[in-house]
Amino acid sequence: MEPLYLHMAILGCTPPGRFTEQHDVFFGIGTNMSALVPELLRFWPEAEGRLHIDAWRRVTHVDGHHITIVPANGITEALEPAALKLFFLNLGGYRPGEFEEYHYKMLVVAADQGKAIQQAKKTAFYKHSGFKGAESHVDDKYGVDVDDVHLVKDILDARYKEMFRVVAGPKEDKLPADTLQIGYFKLDKL
């Protein structure tokens, strides 16, 4: 059997009744991105099959930690050790004179949400994508929007939650960065 990986994708489409392209982030577990196409389509049914991918990555390393997928084997969350967790954050920011909110999506390995937010506030995006009256944000608690800080395991499809656990290993020096696939990808061309 081929190994399973966590995949992250930025999906785009212009749903009926919208005037600009909309985006959302998808997380799935599979051998490769093309194996996840049926899941992508179920994830955003309002797109009526008109989805494309603007960026994706196989998540294997985050902040110097190996990210692996392991079988749940009946382990409930209550039995899981308190350990490092994988968080997804969506930062928002502004530039003077530009009619737009820019976003920076990031994965962070941390012990808790507060520590994940502290790491986000150290990024160049956070420091340089705002100005007085329009500060950059992760939006509401601690100056951050809890809607935009998620444990990855919580936003996975229920089927994945039952079958797998996402594990962040101990920090290691010099792990390679994940390869980012950036561009316009039609689902039938993956």
Please report the number of helical segments: 5
Order of strands in the sheet with the most strands?
A: 2-1-3-10
Q: Assign an overall shape.
A: globular
The helix/strand class is alpha+beta
Query: What is the number of E strands?
Result: 10
Portion in helices: 10-25%
Mean pLDDT over the full residue set:
87
Q: Provide the gyration radius in Å.
A: 17 Å
Report the β-strand fraction as a percent range: 35-45%
Kindly report how far apart the N and C termini lie: 21 Å
Order of H and E elements: EEHEEEEEHHEHHEE
Low-pLDDT windows of residues: 141-147
Q: Summarize the biggest pleated sheet.
A: 4 strands, antiparallel
Structure description:
With 190 residues, the protein is an alpha+beta fold. Helices cover 16% and strands 37% of the residues. It contains five helices and ten strands, in the order E-E-H-E-E-E-E-E-H-H-E-H-H-E-E. The chain has helices at 37-43, 113-120, 124-128, 152-155, 158-163; strands spanning 5-13, 22-30, 52-59, 61-62, 65-71, 85-93, 102-110, 149-151, 164-171, 180-186. A four-stranded antiparallel sheet has the order 2-1-3-10, with helices on one face. A three-stranded antiparallel sheet has the order 4-5-9. Strand 4 and strand 5 form a beta hairpin.
